[in-house]
Design brief:
Strand content: 15-25%
Distance between the termini: 33 Å
CATH topology: Rossmann fold
Shape: globular
Helix content: 25-40%
Amino acid sequence: MKPSKEYRRAPTGCIAAMATSENDYVHGYSHAESGRLRDQANVLTELLHHDTLYPAGSRVLEAGCGIGAQTVILTRQSPDARFTSVDISAESLAKARESVEAVGASNVTFQQADIFRLPFADELFDHVFVCFVLEHLAQPSRALRELRRVLRTGGSLTVIEGDHGSAYFHPSSDRAQKTIDCLVEIQSRLGGNALIGRALFPLLREAGLRDVRVDPRVVYADGSRPVWVEGFTRSTFTAMVKGAKPQALELGLLDEASWDAGIRDLERTAEDDGTFSYTFFKGVGAK
């Protein structure tokens, strides 16, 4: 369902980076959201990026770099590769530059660009990296085809996405599930797809990539894993859902009492006897 224009504003909450316009980013550009994205990137580094490594001298395009949370990780893990990181938001790019300068990385160039109309020649890059971007796009297949265009023959394209339908938790709660469903609906109304993780394999193949493989990367948090409870259950996922409250109420998806009850139940999963699980999907294909 396409949203009416009055609801094509950016909420302030969720897992992700680059939309078709600055106002289509479901998570917003607040200071709190910037902090959440950095915390998310840090806690997920080993899970998502232990095998994200690029050879010395290779030219890598990072599409949808946002505030640079992933950029910092990429440049640290492949210090001898050369990165070009692009985003449609000038504000996000300014924050990304600050993040990279703060860690002393010198192997990245930033450029404002539209993912559907990249200002680069065909087959310019050895590798392309996209993380938490496709979920925000109304036409992810079109974006992938454009990314494939600038990728050299034999090069790799890596995509990482979440899937909000993969969230499972204890104690079970229909009220908590409804708050998550609100976030999925809001993203859909903005033209995105919060369930896109499960579709990466066909999307990459439809874009003309070969040797496609998709690996699930599962987050599991319970009382024996306090780093994951704090870093993911509380500070990433629950914080993301909380940020969607104004839009959920404005759209009439839930009343305030039901919303608050659902958030309390979601927070309950971070207690000592609670558990929380979520799956990311990492897809890699070759041109």
